[in-house]
Amino acid sequence: YTQFLKDFLESAEQYYFVGFCVHYYLFTDQPQQVPELKLGEGRQLTVVEVPSSNRWQEITLRRMERLEKLIESRLINEADYVFSLDVDTKFYGRWGTESLGRLIGVIHPGYYQTPREQFPYERRPESQAFISHAEGDYYYGGAVIGGLVKDVYEVAKTCREQLDIDAAKSIEAAWQEESHLNKYFLYNKPSKVLSPEYLWQDLKARTNEVKIIRFSQVIKNYAAVRPNP
C-alpha cells in the first residue's frame, strides 16, 4: 500500500486541516518505500514500522491494537484529536474543524441508502461484534475513526479486547475491526456523524445526495496490493 502514500500525503497537505499543526503517524512494514515529501509549517511525519502478514485480514485486525498503543505511548500527552485513516485514499476537498467532535463516525458510502436489516453487520451471536437484525442505526466505515484522543482510545481499547475474545474462540468477524467498530457505536453513539462525502469510493458514481467529495478510496488492483485474496 506504500504506492498510495504520495497521493495521500500530497492531497492531505492541500486539504486536510490546512493551517493547523498535524502529525502524521504512518504504520508500514516497508519504511524504505515511504516517499520524501516537503510538509507545510507545523506538520510532521513519523514512520512506525510494524510486522508484515500473509493475510490482509490480519493487518486490518491489528488496527485497533496499534491505535491503542500509539495513544498510550505518544498521543495522550501530545495531541487533542486523532483520526485513523486508511492510506489507500485521497483528499479531494477541504477537511477542517467542522469534522471535529468528541467521537466521530462516518457513514459507509456503500450502505447509506440500504435498509438496516441488510447492513453487513456480524450476525453470529457467538462473536463479540454480533448485532441482531432488529438493531442498528447506520453502517459506519472503518476507514475513518476520529475524535478526542481519550474517546478514540476507549474505542480502540474496547474493540481490541473484543477482537481478542473472538480470536481466542477462532472467530473472525465479517469485516474484521469494522464489525467491532459498528458494535461499539451501537451502544456508544458518536457525538458527530459525518456523511459519505468524508469517505467516498472513486469507483462509485456521484449521487444527488452527496454534492462534494472530500475524501475517497482510490481504485486499485487488489491482487497486486494484498498478500491474499
Task: Describe this protein's structure.
The radius of gyration is 17 Å and the shape is globular. Helix content is 30%, strand content 17%. The strands form 3 sheets. A 4-stranded mixed sheet has the order 3-6-5-7, covered by helices on one side. It has a 3-stranded mixed sheet with strand order 4-9-8. The chain has a two-stranded parallel ribbon with strand order 1-2. It has 6 helices and 9 strands; from the N terminus they run αββααββββααβββα. With 229 residues, it is of the alpha/beta class. The protein has helices at 5-15, 56-61, 63-78, 149-168, 176-187, 222-225, and strands spanning 22-28, 43-49, 81-85, 89-91, 103-106, 144-148, 192-194, 200-201, 215-217.
Short description:
The protein contains 6 helices and 9 strands, in the order αββααββββααβββα. It is of the alpha/beta class and 229 residues long.
